[in-house]
Amino acid sequence: xxxxxxxxxxxxxxxxxxxxxxxxxxxxxxxxxxxxxxxxxxxxxxxxxxxxxxxxxxxxxxxxxxxxxxxxxxxxxxxxxxxxxxxxxxxxxxxxxxxxxxxxxxxxxxxxxxxxxxxxxxxxxxxx
Length: 128
Known about the structure:
Number of strands: 4
Strand content: 25-35%
Oligomer: single chain
C-alpha cells in the first residue's frame, strides 16, 4: 500500500482536474436535464391549474374530472363548490373548463355547468 494517499493531503492539480472532469455531465445529459427541468409533470400541471383557478375565482377546486393534453397545452374540467348549503347534498357545484399553455399557465376558463351536489349527472362520463 505504498501508493495509498493520505486523505488529508491536498490533491495535485492533475488529480483535481481529473476529478472535476469525471463529474461533468455530457452534452446530451445536460440537454436531457434541461428538457426535464422545463417541462412540468402532469401532477404539477394539475396543482398549478387548481391553484390558479382558485386565485382567480375565489373558489377552491374539489376535483379534476377531465384532464388532457392539447396542441396548445392542457385542457381540464374542474369541479368547484360555488354555494354551500345545508344539507350538503343541496350545495351548488359548478364545472369549469380550464385551459393552460404547455408551461401550465392558465390561459382561460369558463363555467360550463352548475348543479346541486346531490343530483346525478345525465351527461356522459369524461366531462365532455
